[in-house]
Amino acid sequence: MTRTSVAEARGAAPLYGQPLLTIDLGAIAANWRDLAARGAPGAVAGVVKADAYGLGVAAVAPALRAAGCRHFFVACLTEGLALRGILGPGPMIAVLEGFPPGADGDAALVPVLNSLDEVAAQAAAARAAGVARRAILHIDTGMARLGLDAGELARLSADHGMLAGLDLLYVMTHLACADEPEHPLNAEQAARFATACAGLPACRRSLANSSGMFLGAGFASDLARPGCALYGVNPTPGTANLMRQAVRLAAPVLQVREIPAGATVGYGASWTASRPSRIATVAAGYADGYLRSLSGRASADFRGRPIPLVARVSMDLTTFDVTDHPDIVPGESLVLIGGEGCTPDEVAARAGTIGYEILTSLGARYARSYVGG
Ligand SMILES: *Cc1c(COP(=O)(O)O)cnc(C)c1O
Fold first, then answer.
1. Does the pTM exceed 0.90?
2. Is 207 a pocket residue for ligand 1 (Cβ < 6 Å)?
3. Do the beta carbons of residue 290 and residue 257 sit within 8 Å?
4. pLDDT attached to residue 11
5. pLDDT digits (tens, 9 = 90+) for 241-251
6. Once rounded to an integer, what is the mean pLDDT over residues 360-366?
7. Does the pLDDT value for residue 316 go beyond 50?
8. How far apart are CA 72 and CA 182, in angstroms?
9. Counting Cβ atoms within 10 Å, is residue 10 exposed (0-12), middle (13-18) or buried (19+)?
């Protein structure tokens, strides 16, 4: 994980020809406050795994904490240790993948226990140290990824003594289809989770991710775990996005050239001008997370106008047809992600992926500017 300090990050002004990634910490904080109101009276965490979905955990996590967030989730131990360094003591930092075998992690981090073996290891360590260990117990109710399966759950339900030494903060599960409100698995998972909790010692519960928070009262819990919605990805696909956009990627036009009808552009000569055309080349490509699968399928935003991407996205450069836009000249910038018609969700749809992957693919060689913090 990169550990750019907020001060460094804030200071980044684009050099000539460098794309500018602007991250709106005010929008992220406001999204968290909206979700916190929606999750009340339960608490609402901030999921900041994968460098806060690519936006920079060193800036995002303190902004969430300033907004009132007291519970954070990361994917792995190294992310947890880095986040503790960023936030200092106080907020809960839970590690979704738990601690690797043999690693005790750090008393200041909370492992998510994903199997009975992990339960046993943490409980034994707690008893050996004579100090209760905080943990979150993960029950698999339909993901078949991590968490106690039905057999393990039955064994634990029959023998609560296995938990001796553990201070269970939450029992959690994770929804597989929360972004599809009509999917029958949602209600099934909620029911399985309720049954699982009923067989365990009384404990607070953690259920919904971003989309799960929009599924209704049956998905409320003591701790919601939104990630993507904080960053502006639509948690309710199919209906209007209630979240604020938090990301804007603007790439400068390096050159504009005129080509005759019949000329081709880019690798593979995959696009042929049907008329005399003006082609703008901008300084971002697939190495910057502007996915190659967008080739010929996306548009950028220039002052509210859609500008069609033509030909293949290459590693460092992408070409746009600006024939109808004489005011697009070198030095101007096109908004590739986070503008009109090119939100992360819209770009994702063009690329055949999801907004999450657009954000986590954002490259490392942008100037990054954090605003609204
Ligand atoms: C990533 C993750 C979340 C957050 O999911 P979003 O869909 O981004 O809100 C919540 N819980 C678990 C277990 C996760 O892995």
1. yes
2. no
3. no
4. 47
5. 999 999 999 99
6. 93
7. yes
8. 29
9. middle
| C-alpha separations of 312 from 267, 277, 316 in Å | 6, 17, 11
Residue whose Cα lies nearest atom 4 of ligand 1: it is: 227
Q: Look up residue 306 and give its two tokens.
A: 């859609």
| Per-residue confidence (pLDDT) for residue 55, from 0 to 100 | 97
To the question of whether residue 145 is assigned a binding role by annotation, the answer is yes
pLDDT at 102: 74
Q: Measured in whole angstroms, how far is the alpha carbon of residue 77 from the centre of its chain?
A: 18
Whether residue 315 is annotated as binding a ligand: the answer is yes
Confidence of residue 5 (pLDDT cuts 50, 70, 90): very low
The pLDDT score that the predictor gives to residue 17 is 81
pLDDT for residue 285 is more than 50: yes
pLDDT at 100: 84
115, amino acid identity:
S
From CA 103, how far away is CA 288, in angstroms rounded?
35
Look at ligand 1, atom 3, and give the residue with the nearest C-alpha: 209
DSSP letters along 238-302, please?
TS---SPP-EEEEEEEEEEEEE-TT-EESGGG-EE-SSSEEEEEES--GGGT--GGGTTT-EEEE
Atom of ligand 1 nearest to the CA of 49: 1
CB 179 within 8 A of CB 214: no
Catalytic annotation, residues:
49, 267
Which token pair is 285? Answer: 């490509």
Q: Is 203 exposed, middle or buried (0-12, 13-18, 19+ CB in 10 A)?
A: middle
Q: What is the dihedral of CA 1, 284, 60, 143, to 10 degrees?
A: -70
Which atom of ligand 1 is nearest to 228's Cα?
Answer: 8
